[in-house]
Every structure is written in structure tokens, then in C-alpha cells.
Write a structure and sequence with these properties.
Structural class: alpha+beta
Distance between the termini: 68 Å
Largest sheet: 5 strands, mixed, barrel
CATH architecture of the largest domain: Beta Barrel
Number of strands: 13
Order of helices and strands: HEEEHEHEEEEHHEEHEEE
CATH class of the largest domain: Mainly Beta
CATH topology of the largest domain: OB fold (Dihydrolipoamide Acetyltransferase, E2P)
Number of domains: 2
Strand content: 25-35%
Number of helices: 6
Radius of gyration: 27 Å
Length: about 260
């Protein structure tokens, strides 16, 4: 009878078999650790997006619904007539545009803010941002009008012409800072709920050099198209439309029926 024969009720396995099993176990541990290291190394870096969860700040500015609900806050220096021109040359824009969404939910705020559109307001909320793209997670009950401020001229809209763009339909709230990853099929369900509930949708595009842009998506007349975009969320698409710049926001006016899946 072989000395390596193992009987289950014995306290120990034979020496040769015991050594073999230890070697196999060590090899499996090394393979597992190496595989984990390779997977980790293959992952891209986290985007420099931020969600100031639990931190509420107060903001004041002009409330607009064109092209989507946003708060326009004046860049420092513009309100002063002696320095406005110089500040414009440095900053490039007169206003910073903060998109608006409802705090703690996946809902937009169009219905809640519509009565105060065009007015100078005060509100509280948590900041969500990705580079120069910003959103305020608004506490709706904090929204109040500030009387006594004369209306300022609306920012000029820069026409960028008709363009054909390829990218992915995303929801701005998650993409600006609430979720990572915020694109692709892994995020499709979440993006669909956000967009269906009124969060501003956008087309996420990236060129061969790795430069990215997010263009707010609205209908040909500037109307919301959230419901119509639902079938295209999380998929590569080609969209043709008129592109404009509203301060730091890019907007794509398009016919949803003409969107092409790739």
C-alpha cells in the first residue's frame, strides 16, 4: 500500500500529499493576487468630479429656464463698471451657469422654479461639479425671490452652427459628480431614471485627442426631450443639430426622431 494514501478520518494527510497541497494553495494565492493587481492597473483614474454631500451653501443669482433650469451668478468684477471689461477678458464669461436639480432625489426642478424664472433669487443646496461644469442640488423650500434688484441683460448666446456629433446620452447630475462610472451600460438604468424624472440630459462626446465635452440636449425649439431620449440612453449615437454656447454651457438643439444608433 502506498504511504501517500489518505484516509479522511486521520488527523493529517501524508507528508508528500500535504506538501503538494500547500504548494497548490500558495500558487493559487499568488495567481489571485496577480490577477487582482492586473485588473486594478487596467482601471482608468477617477474623474475629478465632486459632490459636496451634506454641505449646504447659499447662492444668489438670476434664475433662468432657457435652455434648462439654471442659476446665473455673476463673475466677480463684472458688476463693477470700472473693471467689468478687464474681468471679461480674463474670465471669458460674464456669468457662471449652475444647472439645478432637486436635493436628495433623481428629480429635476423645472416645475418648482418656474414661478420665479427671470428673477433674482436666493437658494441653498449642495454643489456638484466637474471642472467648469457645475450643478446645485437645490433644497426647493429654500428658493426665495430677492426684491429690489433691477433685471440684468441676459447673457449673449453664441451660435456655433449645425454640427454632427457622436457620443452617449447621459444625465448631468450623476456625470457631474454623483456617480463614477456615469457612462456606459453599467450606468444606463440610473441615467434613465434621472432623465425620466427631469434631470437635464446631455450628449457626452470625446475626440481622438481625449478632449471631452457635454452638450445639453433639447428639442428644436428648446423644449425638454427627456422622455423621447430614454431609448437612446447609455448607447453610442450620432446626433445632428444646432449648437450654441450659453456662457459656460454648450447646448445641442435637435430632432430626436433623427437620432441614429451606432
Amino acid at each position: 500500500m502506498s504511504d501517500d494514501f489518505y484516509v479522511g478520518y486521520h488527523a493529517k494527510a501524508p507528508g508528500a500529499l500535504r506538501g503538494f497541497l500547500r504548494g497548490v494553495a500558495a500558487l493559487l494565492i499568488l495567481v489571485g493576487a496577480g490577477t487582482a493587481a492586473l485588473i486594478a492597473a487596467d482601471q482608468g483614474p477617477f474623474r475629478p468630479s465632486v459632490f459636496e454631500f451634506g454641505v449646504e451653501r447659499e447662492y444668489t443669482g438670476w434664475l433662468t429656464l432657457d435652455p434648462v433650469p439654471a442659476l446665473l451668478t455673476e463673475v466677480p468684477g463684472h458688476h463693477d463698471g470700472d473693471h467689468g471689461e478687464a474681468s471679461s477678458a480674463i474670465c471669458g464669461t460674464r456669468y457662471s451657469s449652475y444647472l439645478l436639480a432637486e436635493s436628495g432625489t433623481k428629480f429635476g426642478v423645472a416645475d418648482a422654479v418656474a414661478p420665479l424664472a427671470g428673477q433674482f433669487v436666493r437658494l441653498r443646496g449642495s454643489l456638484v461639479y466637474l471642472d467648469r461644469e457645475t450643478m446645485i442640488d437645490v433644497v426647493p423650500s429654500s428658493l426665495t425671490a430677492i426684491d429690489g434688484r433691477a433685471p440684468d441683460p441676459l447673457p449673449a448666446v453664441q451660435e456655433l452652427g449645425i454640427q454632427v456629433l457622436t457620443g452617449e446620452v447621459i444625465d448631468t447630475k450623476c456625470h457631474f459628480g454623483l456617480m463614477d462610472p456615469s457612462t456606459g451600460k453599467v450606468h444606463r438604468g440610473c441615467a434613465a431614471r434621472c432623465i425620466s424624472s427631469g434631470v437635464p440630459p446631455a450628449l457626452h462626446v470625446e475626440d481622438e485627442a481625449g478632449r471631452v465635452a457635454n452638450l445639453l440636449l433639447v428639442g428644436l425649439g428648446g423644449e425638454p426631450v427627456n422622455a423621447e431620449l430614454k431609448p437612446f440612453i447609455g448607447e453610442p449615437v450620432r446626433i445632428e443639430g444646432r449648437v450654441t454656447r450659453h456662457e459656460n454651457l454648450l447646448v445641442l438643439y435637435t430632432d430626436v426622431d433623427a437620432i441614429e444608433r451606432l
